[in-house]
Write a structure and sequence with these properties.
The chain is mostly helical and about 650 residues long. The chain has 3 domains: about 1-435, no CATH class; about 445-500; about 505-620, Serine Threonine Protein Phosphatase 5, Tetratricopeptide repeat (Alpha Horseshoe). It contains 27 helices and 2 strands. The chain has helices spanning about 1-10, 20-30, 45-65, 75-90, 95-120, 125-150, 170-190, 195-210, 215-230, 240-260, 265-275, 285-300, 310-315, 320-330, 340-370, 375-390, 400-420, 430-470, 470-485, 490-500, 505-520, 525-535, 540-555, 560-570, 575-585, 590-605, 610-620; strands spanning about 70, 430. A two-stranded antiparallel sheet has the order 1-2. The longest helix has about 35 residues, at about 430-470.
């Protein structure tokens, strides 16, 4: 529908390209929706592939033999190339330069997407269909997110009733909605035959954002909506727009009442969630504060050029606090959860200066565009979306997400195209011959970094399936095939596995628990946790001693029995493990993990029929538990530890 409409209405004025404009319009609509279950991350991987393929085709379109246009060199070009240059310079001291090359590639593609958008959106019709595509994409995305909360989920996610939609994460869904909702709001109040669709998209999108329980998303959307509603001379302040806004507000109120009746706990939970933003005792807020503090330590150690572009996750373990590791329970922290802190940690103060230069230029360009009534009507919704993303970036990483990141670059290109159409100087165009020279290494890297990594990901996905089935030899063959598709996987896999294990934290946390026990020697929960850590560290005799003490203090503490059963099983005492795990399963009947371990112990005891029965019960309670029996045989999977 969108493609035929583009063909019908987009004329090809001088300075733009019909096919390129159509490609970006279709990208804006399809990128939030595309998924591919055969990949390891079937949300992010296919979106990244689609995004880079469109960029590659756009580059080939503009520099190919039939290319008739020149890529504009805008007021943002120099700061963007400065950011890329500082990023590459930061790799001189990086722990893992290859990860920096991949990160630099993502930034390079973002810069290309921005310039392609500035070229394509010179046509007024292209700009109109682009914003329509962004607004309409909310309909299927938000409808699916709301349906998930109602229990309708055709993807059969392990996390039930979580409104991730086709984005894969509630945070990613919120980032996307923060960028897109201001556009839907502006289109919903216009006198247009499509206004009913944009009104529906707006109401569904706001409902979806509410259900994500994303505090940063709420703040970002509120900022974007506030800019649209409160800016002097906003196009939403005419009488027609006000009348439509009143109707939308009434419809939103009715939806709120319906949601309150069908989900009575949603309102109080949302109020509590919003209030936790300023509560440093809230666990999620506390984790962010601890990550920021550790990231600031990294900046203090590497102030000028940082730890290297793309190397945050490899440097972070050296400054990670035990408290953050214990609270977050994550094996690895790959982002500072603040784009500005993250950028400074990776590229230092020089990278931050380049980014601020870029933001200053972008703000000046937006101010010029908003200085005219025509520019304000077109540009204000995009400026609202960009401002919402900038606010969200203080708590998350919207520029790394393929969807919200692509919207960021295309929105900026749209504003630059609008500014050039209104007389803002674009400087000189980038000569086609220079662009053709740059296209050669770009195409070569795309083959390796985009297509190679995608093919390797398919092999890795197959390898994961085979491991769950216990087919170790076939899984190893799949991994070797992945290495042939993407050679750097050998380096990334080895180094990332070291970081993801993060064994450094286990003895540190054990020492912390030992310190606390000196003042609270009869704390059964601390003893149980310490015993579990001793088991992870292989100190099985100490684990059994500490866990028996915890059980003596609190016989009904299920985790202590579970940890003791695991330690006894690892030390070879199968009968003792059976007794303890059976107690743990009876004390915590709704938890599938003790039953899963009981099934393993029963298998070791030779009771295969009982093991399979307990395994089925465990998987019923927790479908995310891995399989441990081969199909058609009784051999043990390597997943059992």
């Amino acid at each position: 529908m969108l493609r035929s409409a583009c063909r019908k209405e987009i004329a090809e004025p001088q300075g733009t390209d019909l096919l390129l404009a159509q490609g970006l319009v279709l990208l804006a609509f399809t990128l939030p929706l595309v998924i591919f279950p055969a990949s390891t991350d079937f949300y992010t991987v296919p979106k990244t592939l689609l995004l880079h393929v469109v960029i590659l085709l756009g580059v080939l379109r503009t520099v190919g033999p039939g290319g008739k246009t020149q890529i504009p060199f805008t007021s943002l070009s120099l700061p963007l190339f400065a950011m890329l240059g500082v990023g590459l310079l930061s790799l001189l001291g990086a722990i893992f330069p290859w990860a920096g090359v991949e990160a630099a590639w993502r930034l390079w593609n973002g810069i290309l997407l921005y310039h392609l958008a500035a070229l394509a959106f010179a046509a007024p019709q292209a700009r109109r269909w682009f914003v329509r595509a962004v607004g309409l994409s909310i309909l299927p995305v938000a409808a699916y997110g709301v349906a998930q909360v109602m229990g309708l989920d055709f993807l059969r996610l392990a996390a039930r009733q979580v409104p991730v939609s086709s984005l894969g994460n509630t945070g990613f869904a919120a980032e996307y909605l923060v960028a897109a909702l201001p556009i839907a709001l502006a289109l919903a109040v216009k006198q247009d035959r499509w206004s009913w669709a944009f009104s529906s998209a707006l109401l569904l999108g706001v409902s979806h954002l509410w259900l994500t329980q994303s505090r940063a998303g709420w703040l970002g959307a509120a900022l974007g909506g506030g800019i649209l509603l409160l800016t002097p001379a906003s196009p939403l302040k005419n009488e027609l727009a006000r009348a439509r806004l009143r109707r939308l507000a009434l419809a939103g109120l009715l939806l709120t009442v319906v949601a309150g009746l069908t989900m009575p706990g949603l309102g109080p939970a949302s109020v509590a969630r919003l209030g936790s933003i300023v509560d440093p005792g809230d666990p999620t807020a506390r984790v962010r504060l601890l990550i920021w503090r550790s990231a600031l330590d990294l900046i203090g150690q590497h102030p000028l050029l940082g730890v290297g572009l793309g190397n945050f996750e490899f440097a972070y373990p050296e400054v990670r606090s035990v408290e953050e590791w214990r609270l977050s329970r994550r094996d690895v922290v790959d982002d500072a959860h603040n784009e500005y802190v993250h950028l400074t940690a990776e590229t230092g103060l020089l990278g931050l200066a380049a980014f601020l230069w870029f933001l200053g230029r972008a703000a000046r360009s937006a101010r010029k565009v908003l200085g005219t009534p025509e520019g304000r009507e077109e540009a204000l919704p995009l400026v609202a979306g960009l401002a919402g993303l900038l606010l969200y970036a203080g708590f998350g990483f919207p520029f790394k997400d393929p969807t919200s990141g692509a919207y960021w670059w295309m929105f900026l290109g749209y504003l630059s195209a609008l500014g050039m159409r209104q007389g803002e100087s674009a400087g000189r165009a980038i000569p086609v011959k220079w662009a053709r020279v740059a296209a050669v290494p770009h195409c070569a890297l795309a083959t390796l970094l985009v297509f190679g990594s995608f093919l390797a990901d398919l092999h890795v996905r197959r390898m994961q399936v085979l491991i769950r089935q216990g087919a170790e030899a076939a899984a190893a063959a799949e991994y070797r095939a992945a290495l042939q598709s993407y050679v750097p996987l050998a380096w990334t896999h080895r180094l990332r596995s070291l970081v993801h294990d993060d064994h450094r934290m286990y003895p540190l946390l054990a020492a912390e628990y030992e310190r606390r026990l000196r003042s609270r020697p009869n704390d059964a929960w601390l003893l149980s946790e310490l015993g579990g850590l001793y088991g992870m560290l292989g100190r099985l005799d100490e684990a059994a001693r500490v866990l028996r003490l915890a059980i003596a203090l609190r016989p009904g503490l299920a985790p202590a029995h579970e940890n003791l059963g695991s330690a006894l099983l690892l030390s070879g005492d199968v009968q003792g493990a059976l007794a303890e795990l059976d107690v743990a399963a009876r004390l915590d009947p709704k938890n599938g993990r003790p039953r899963y371990k009981l099934a393993v112990a029963l298998y070791h005891a030779g009771k295969k029929a009982e093991a399979e029965e307990q395994f089925r019960l465990a998987r019923t309670l927790d479908p995310a538990l891995p399989e441990f029996l081969r199909q058609g045989s009784g051999e043990k999977s390597p997943l059992i530890q």
